[in-house]
Amino acid sequence: MRKMPNYVLLRAFEAAARLESFTLAAKELHLTQSAISHQIKELEDYFGKPLFFRKNRKVEPTLEGRRLLDSLSRIFDVIEAACTEVTLAPNSQVLALHCSPSFAAKWLSPRLPEFIKANPDITIRMTSGAEPIDLLRNQEIDVAISYQFTHTGPGITSVSLGEEKIIPMCSPELIDPTVSAEELMSKLTLIESSLNHHTWERWFEINHLHNPSSRKMSFDRAALSISAAVDGIGAVLESVRFAERELSRGELVEIGQQIFLPTTDRTHFLSYRSNTKNSQKIKLFNEWIFSKAGVTP
Predict the structure, then answer these.
(1) Residues of the chain whose pLDDT is less than 70?
(2) What is the per-residue pLDDT for 195?
(3) Residue 260 to residue 244: CA distance in whole angstroms
(4) SS3 string of the chain?
């Protein structure tokens, strides 16, 4: 048997910690407040330490309680997803994707309806995060799309999603036809994505320009940097792949096209466990996304 407390106790704890209330947990689980209190006490006896700070009208998890809640939340999500998959139609399959946030929001999600329409028996379950995911440890994930990170090692297959053009962009409202592109770049606020290794410093160096380092703004997501540029805050140095819609709608324009030196890079990589390469759902998704990205694996 597994060395773990009764599931009923863990369920009571997860609800109480998430809601920070024994009363609300009781309502959610259709139990009495007293029953929840007794179950929490039994779990605390099992661990030999308190899991909550009791206050007048609410409870707060202790440090150990918070750590337990974080782990249980992920586990309960996996259990819920597994149960959902069992209830699907007989021919249905679930494709679990883990994707870098900006790629998911700016490039993949707008195209997914096409894949879903062409493959009605495949249900997409997508999670996102900036940190690379270990596919050998996270067996519930089928395919991972990472940013500036290649999954390597035995048992993992990784494929680049192609070259991406990196350009300086800004709102057309900031363009002054009487001002040269070089002068404009010396005046604009520079918007940075902290995870992007294509820095403004490097861009100015490549283009042999003076870097005005005084006016900068930084975001931790490329999607937020793109939005800030659309709002007219300044210029952003980002992949065209992230700004396709904004460029096509005229919300952003490239600065100094055919003036500044072009920059390209391979920044996104698709990975999956090598022993799943013949899985029909993974083959169908990989063929589709490689086609959309214009690459030959």
Answers:
(1) 1, 84-92, 213-214
(2) 81
(3) 20
(4) CCCCCCHHHHHHHHHHHHHCCHHHHHHHHCCCHHHHHHHHHHHHHHHCCCCEEECCCCEEECHHHHHHHHHHHHHHHHHHHHHHHHCCCCCCEEEEEEECHHHHHHHHHHHHHHHHHHCCCEEEEEEECCCCCCCCCCCCCCEEEEECCCCCCCCEEEEECCCEEEEEEECHHHCCCCCCHHHHHHHCCEEEECCCCCCHHHHHHHCCCCCCCCCEEEECCHHHHHHHHHCCCCEEEEEHHHHHHHHHCCCCEECCCCCCCCEEECCEEEEEEHHHCCCHHHHHHHHHHHHHHCCCC
At 213 the pLDDT is: 66
pTM for the predicted model, two decimal places:
0.68
